């Protein structure tokens, strides 16, 4: 199923003055990540639901996702959106995916207006990686490669393949959708940024489960217009790992070499 089909959702129903829901949603098995749905698509779907309740020109500033429990594929779930507060400049929302009366994914999103300010610090971070011409990463291996990988083109420039016993714990490369969406929205960016495997997997000799526990995204504005065919550059490094948990930080650039997002994840690995 194309990503746009999952991001287009039924109209939300009001539960109260500050809470809404949409139900009877499902994620098909081609978006599987082990026993659960791919985290990027569930986070993207929640964002899409939250964004319907943002009615002015406030843009997404930060987006924090906690993956609470497995989200079963091909089984119905609902998304509940709650407005915590809308002030003069900033709006705070939560979003939840609930399946079988249990919260599977929980999000807090912060939207803010642009304001006049005497403070201006230009981001000068650039990458020097050559633009790829085609995908170059993990082939589709039954029962090893996650099914959701078929929806993304990943081109690795540096870092090791998962389960190859490398000493490295970083990735440098590029990403895009295999089937380009009509437009790239923040929902698409959220979905795509999570496509890379955890950095720690390249340090393992044999396949082992790993999952993201929490994930924070910060968005740099203004966004420049990009094409659904464009490659986005990605560099992620492990800051620390011990006791079965790793902490990573990533930078994401658009095709103009402008930073569009910063990503931080806490990952559990069961080796």
Describe the structure.
The protein is mainly beta and 271 residues long. The protein has one domain: Acyl-CoA thioesterase, double hotdog domain (Porin), CATH 2.40.160.210. Helices cover 10% and strands 41% of the residues. It has helices at residues 3-7, 39-51, 186-193; strands at 13-16, 19-25, 32-33, 36-37, 59-67, 77-86, 90-99, 102-112, 152-158, 170-177, 210-219, 232-242, 245-253, 259-269. It has a twelve-stranded antiparallel sheet with strand order 1-2-6-7-8-5-11-14-13-12-10-9, with helices on one face. Helix 2 (39-51) packs antiparallel against helix 3 (186-193). The radius of gyration is 18 Å and the shape is globular.
Helices and strands, with pairings:
Elements: H1 3-7, E1 13-16, E2 19-25, E3 32-33, E4 36-37, H2 39-51, E5 59-67, E6 77-86, E7 90-99, E8 102-112, E9 152-158, E10 170-177, H3 186-193, E11 210-219, E12 232-242, E13 245-253, E14 259-269
Antiparallel strand pairs: 1-2, 2-6, 3-4, 5-8, 5-11, 6-7, 7-8, 9-10, 10-12, 11-14, 12-13, 13-14
Helix pairs in contact: 2-3
Q: What features would you highlight for this structure?
A:
two-stranded antiparallel ribbon, TesB_ACOT8-like_N, Porin, HotDog_dom_sf, globular, 3 helices, 271 residues, mainly beta, 12-stranded antiparallel beta sheet
């Amino acid at each position: 199923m194309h990503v746009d089909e999952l991001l287009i959702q039924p109209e939300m129903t009001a539960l109260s003055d500050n809470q809404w829901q949409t139900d009877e949603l499902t994620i098909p098995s081609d978006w599987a990540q082990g026993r659960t749905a791919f985290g990027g698509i569930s986070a993207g779907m929640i964002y899409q639901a939250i964004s319907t309740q943002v009615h002015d020109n406030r843009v997404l500033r930060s987006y924090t996702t906690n993956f609470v429990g497995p989200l079963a594929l091909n089984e119905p779930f609902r998304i509940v959106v709650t407005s915590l507060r809308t002030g003069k400049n900033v709006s705070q929302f939560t979003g939840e995916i609930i399946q079988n009366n249990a919260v599977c994914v929980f999000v807090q999103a912060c939207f803010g207006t642009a304001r006049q300010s005497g403070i201006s610090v230009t981001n000068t971070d650039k990458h020097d990686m050559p633009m790829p011409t085609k995908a170059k990463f993990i082939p589709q291996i039954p029962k090893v490669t996650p099914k959701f990988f078929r929806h993304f083109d990943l081109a690795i420039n540096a870092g090791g393949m998962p389960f190859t016993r490398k000493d490295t714990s970083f990735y440098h490369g590029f990403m895009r959708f295999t089937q380009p969406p009509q437009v790239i929205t923040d929902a698409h960016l959220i979905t795509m940024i999570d496509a890379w495997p955890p950095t720690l997997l390249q340090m393992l000799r044999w396949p082992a489960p790993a999952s993201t526990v929490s994930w924070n995204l910060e968005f740099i504005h203004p966004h420049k217009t990009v094409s659904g065919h464009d490659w986005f550059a990605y560099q992620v490094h492990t800051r620390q790992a011990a006791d079965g948990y790793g902490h990573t930080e990533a930078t994401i650039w658009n095709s103009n070499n402008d930073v569009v997002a910063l990503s931080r994840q806490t990952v559990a690995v069961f080796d």
